Amino acid sequence: MARVLMIVSAADSLTMRDGTEHPTGFWAEELVVAHRMLREAGHDVDIATPGGVRPTVDRASFAPEMTGGPERAEEFRAYLEQIDAELSTPLVLGDVTAGGYDALVLPGGHGPMADLHRDADLGRLLVAADRTGRIIAPFCHGPAGLLSAVDEDGTFAFAGRRVTAFTNEEELGGGTGENTPWFVETALREKGAVVETGPAWSSHVIRDANLVTGQNPQSSEAVAEVVLDALAE
Hints:
Elements: E1 3-7, E2 13-15, E3 21-23, H1 28-40, E4 44-49, H2 64-67, H3 70-82, H4 84-88, E5 91-92, E6 103-106, H5 120-131, E7 135-138, E8 162-163, H6 168-174, H7 184-191, E9 194-195, E10 205-208, E11 211-214, H8 220-232
Parallel strand pairs: 1-4, 1-6, 4-5, 6-7, 8-9
Antiparallel strand pairs: 2-3, 10-11
Helix pairs in contact: 1-3, 1-8
């Protein structure tokens, strides 16, 4: 069985365009669905955060209108309680080496826009993992973490690669709106990634060799399925 590292934001707020702080963290559905599917398939999953800080769940991700109903919200809550010991003592991202894992998975929530997008330890891991063909799978706002991956000469490691991410349309229409400090889709395009988006709020996954990206929370299951297929190859 494979070893998977789930890299989760340690941020609990995002500084908005107007300077206010917006409570955030990881999105429950994204972490739960990916973690559960990988574990049920028999793979080992470790959780790591910057500094080994316990990650914060975005409370908005339990809202019934976000989850598809109160039963689904309770399902996510119950699973997070089940893995609470792991969430309480995550690995320190800076202590991890890419060689110890077959895949790196990065769920979203707005948290990655506050820390992972500029985390040097994550950048080091992503560059090393990509060079050795390990699976890299960020989704929703998780692809913000790709922005940390810069080669020795300052080149964005994923320039020219096909990706998707939470879209500007989705951010403006159902995310943090006009007050969003920056947009993941735009930032990836400006760095040279080839961003391919699907219809808003529908499952959309792009696989470019070892790089697997998903557009939104609705893509969580499909991302995990593609990662499972890639691990089986």
